[in-house]
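Give me structure tokens for this 308-residue protein.
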Amino acid sequence: MLGPVILAASRSDRMRRLISAAPVTKQVVDRFIPGETVDEIVPIIKDLSERGLELTMDVVGEDITRPEQAAAARDAYLLLIDRLKELELGTRAEMSVKLSMFGQALEGGHELALANVRPVVEAAAAIGTTVTLDAEDHTTLDSMFAIHEELRKDFPQTGCVIQAYLFRTEADARRLADSGSRVRLVKGAYKEPAEVAYQQKHEIDKAYVRILKILMEGAGYPMIGSHDPRLISIAQELARTAGRKLDEYEFQMLYGIRSDEHLRLAAEGHRMRVYTAFGTDWYGYFMRRLAEKPANLLFFARSILTKG
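Here you go.
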């Protein structure tokens, strides 16, 4: 039951100040967010790539209040893409973007977000990679899906994320599971009301399996975003039943969580992509990682008790 409390804290300026000021916080944050700048993150990209892993890169930050902040977010991704091109690592790393960072919540935000994200999608395609649009809270999804559909007209490889805890997602999955689509399925990490989302873990897990079956039986490319050993096993069985080869779907997990499992799946021949975030505006991302899994919160609390 701590998850909703932590998610509420992720929106609290007071909690942001308290946690950011804690001496141990940077040490713990580094587990999930291994750098603040492109220069700091490049060695991580090289290391994971050399280990047979692929990456999806997220420049953290969501609380955009001015158009110039949205433009700065766009430019941060373009800088990252330029560096990947220089290092010839473009095919090893895709981009994950939150449209809130590109101005989605501002006045005229739908058009602004589309205008800001399009150059990132174009630049990614130019180096042989692509972009996945992250899902945020349920009020933003219609805009996200509309932008996804618009981008796919010119860049059909553009992916999107769907969240198993939302009631709407089974219908979204059926609509999206078409040829050429790339869809990442996650459980969901936002505080959503009971009117739109399952609240109990067992309900969310059942929905995840139902939706994953839709994706596996469809004509698109499923991306399984989960650290749950049971769901990973079920995903493998659903893939076999659907007659999918190992390169016709992939697993995705967060940097800093179950790293041994990343390597195990890659060694078995699976495509394994590590969701790797970096940047200075880490608070919201960090708090959702704590809310998603009790072990993450225990890790943080133990660090505070022993190092604070």
